[in-house]
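Fold this sequence, please.
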Amino acid sequence: MKSFESEISGLGHDPSARLRQVARAHRLWRHPFVGRCRTGGLTLPQVRVLSTQMYKFCREFPCFLAAALLACRDEEARMVIGENLWEELGEGDPQRAHAALFRRFTRALGFDDAQLEAVPAQPETRALIDTYLGLAERFGVLGILGALCHASEGIVATLYAHIQRGLLQAGAFEPAALVFFELHIHADDGHADKLESVLLPLLRTPQDMQRAERAITAALDARCDFFDGVLRAAGGADDHAA
């Protein structure tokens, strides 16, 4: 009978490298919205739509972590997820909760908190939230850990660096308004390393690997759709089609 390592193809039989490659090769990095951020083509209307829709996902992210914690039976993995949730909630300080930090950005764009809450979620935003909340049911714990590691914590430093570059070229922001982005650019690689350290020992069969890969891809696909929605809502659908 073949060993697990011999059955997993590619990338030097390295599950870590294979999962990272799934994320690196995803079409997310070629998405027109990300391209606009890199090249300075982001407009202020697109920034405003991004801010209101991204906030919807940010506000729900602790719920996803709580669902992940509930679904996970591995004690070490629970510790890592719990630490992440604790940080998302500001480590006990409501003013440092990530949703509160994001509201500094939306206020800088002229949205008061009541206006922000009143903005409806675009269909693609709702689908992104639902995708994350449904990972446990669709892919199990391996899917949760895989997506959290390689479609969230492992990519946000790079993704948010691109977004912050686009923001700064689209308008003038005080440093305090961008603290949410700075925090994630500099902190989440450590989260990804911890998540990977608990994920890899759970990958025991090729089917386990495939489950993690499918979850990563589903989460990244939903992010792409989210950016589609931002461009569409901001009137950029014609540019996207081009």
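The chain has a mean pLDDT of 90. DSSP finds twelve helices and no strands in the chain.
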